[in-house]
């Protein structure tokens, strides 16, 4: 029985920063006298993760004194309230909120403030669009781990192995929560991280409990490579088997092959392997792969079929060979 649990595993988001210097809202002493919400037009995240939307707002002058700490901020999608965690401070006109379990791409969400009558307002003309496509790679990931604290004066010490990044420990009531923040990279994918709580008991005995967690880091395709293997001898009309490989999580869902012919790029097929016919001259190919997080083009694979040139080379080699083996006349 372990008292530790991973409380979240979030690939945090690319947040488009709010430029507060050019914005005007009442909390900052401006004279805007309208209902306005200031949110980024769009924010990118990963499917199933949460996303924090920076937000501020203004009210019409006559409603200003109705804005009390008891007011309830919610967020809606198509008039339906969604699951959120409010992070801001309404009375300071800060409506920053974390939207939980975001699943759909390109959906608009808007703020609603309910202070009871008469101040009930939907900021539906100032929505934020959540786009699902952020890459985890290189963005901060947070892992949280909490352990019960049985004795306030000797809270447990929570540590992470390996120490992938910075961790901060917070004690709240009877629980200690440690948050590990690190920059996710594809190299972390599949790694096992442990969270350990060490309790120091007055007797001097130390007890330790821990849990392990396997990281799943999503990333766009990397190291995409195209190779060909011609049916020998390589000749015009002969076969060429092309294979496209890539590292991606989740695995690539689409592989497209292209042939470069002079100025033109022709789509020639799909699938990780493809068998095609060689043309006379330069045969140039590449593949392009896709997963939910992005696309990548491979290197260019080239094979030159010029039968005449090959024969000429053979002749030259034979001549050179002949010259070498012919004994030099002695002086
Ligand atoms: C609003 O609240 C959030 C969360 O507490 C904070 O990060 C942000 O800096 C605040 N914004 C302003 C303009 O004070
Ligand atoms: C919220 O903002 C108001 C007004 O600026 C301030 O008096 C109050 O202390 C803030 N509350 C919190 C929890 O920060
Ligand atoms: C801590 O305990 C107090 C009183 O029992 C409770 O009101 C508060 O919500 C608790 N805080 C957290 C973060 O659980
Ligand atoms: C993550 O990367 C940023 C920018 O490269 C850097 O400033 C920050 O310190 C890194 N964070 C961690 C926990 O390594
Ligand atoms: C993490 O643990 C799992 C299950 O025990 C194991 O299959 C996997 O190989 C481990 N990963 C690494 C990188 O050690
Ligand atoms: C400390 O642990 C040892 C070994 O587990 C045990 O023999 C001893 O009784 C413990 N001491 C106390 C005060 O609990
Ligand atoms: C790509 O290849 C390089 C060098 O072979 C390797 O270090 C790296 O881990 C590979 N990337 C992935 C995502 O497999
Ligand atoms: C190319 O692919 C075909 C069909 O999969 C196979 O029969 C053939 O042996 C392959 N040729 C080479 C050179 O790999």
Automatic annotation (TrEMBL):
Taxonomy, superkingdom: Eukaryota
Domain Ig-like positions: 127-216, 221-306
PROSITE patterns (UniProt xref): IG_LIKE
A GO BP annotation: cell adhesion
InterPro entries registered for this protein in UniProt: Ig-like_dom, Ig-like_dom_sf, Ig-like_fold, SIGLEC
Pfam families found in the cross-reference section: Ig_2
Membrane topology, from the record: Single-pass membrane protein
GO molecular function: carbohydrate binding; sialic acid binding
Cell location: Membrane
Key words, A-Z: Membrane, Signal, Transmembrane, Transmembrane helix
Signal peptide bounds: 1-23
Gene3D superfamilies tied to this protein: Immunoglobulins (2.60.40.10)
A Gene Ontology cellular-component term: plasma membrane
Protein name: Ig-like domain-containing protein
Species of origin: Gadus morhua
Lineage: Eukaryota, Metazoa, Chordata, Craniata, Vertebrata
């Amino acid at each position: 029985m372990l008292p530790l649990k991973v409380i979240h595993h979030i690939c945090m988001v690319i947040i488009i920063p709010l430029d507060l210097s050019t914005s005007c809202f009442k909390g900052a002493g401006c004279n805007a006298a309208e209902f306005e919400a200031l949110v980024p037009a769009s924010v990118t995240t990963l499917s199933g993760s949460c996303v924090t939307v920076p937000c501020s707002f203004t009210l019409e002058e006559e409603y200003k004194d109705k804005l009390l700490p008891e007011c309830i901020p919610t967020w809606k999608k198509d008039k339906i309230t969604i699951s959120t965690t409010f992070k801001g401070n309404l009375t300071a006109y800060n409506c920053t909120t974390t939207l939980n379990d975001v699943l759909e791409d390109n959906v608009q969400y808007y703020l609603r403030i309910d202070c009871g009558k008469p101040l009930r307002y939907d900021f539906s003309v100032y929505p934020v669009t959540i786009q699902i496509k952020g890459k985890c790679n290189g963005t901060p990931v947070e892992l949280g781990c909490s352990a019960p604290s049985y004795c306030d004066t000797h809270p447990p010490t929570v540590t992470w192995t390996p120490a992938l990044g910075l961790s901060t420990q917070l004690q709240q009531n009877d629980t200690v929560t440690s948050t590990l923040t690190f920059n996710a990279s594809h190299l972390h994918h599949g790694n096992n991280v442990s969270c350990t709580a060490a309790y120091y008991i007055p007797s001097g005995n130390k007890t330790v409990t821990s849990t392990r967690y396997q990281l799943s880091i999503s990333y766009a395709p990397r190291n995409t490579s195209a190779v060909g293997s011609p049916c020998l001898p390589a000749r015009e009309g002969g076969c060429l088997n092309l294979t496209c490989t890539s590292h991606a999580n989740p695995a690539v869902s689409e592989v497209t092959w292209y042939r470069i012919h002079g100025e033109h790029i022709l789509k020639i097929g799909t699938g990780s392997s493809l068998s095609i016919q060689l043309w006379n001259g330069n045969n140039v190919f590449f593949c392009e792969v896709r997963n939910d997080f992005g696309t990548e083009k491979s290197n260019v694979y080239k094979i030159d079929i010029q039968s005449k040139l090959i024969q000429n080379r053979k002749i030259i080699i034979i001549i050179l060979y002949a010259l070498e083996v012919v004994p030099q006349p002695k002086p």
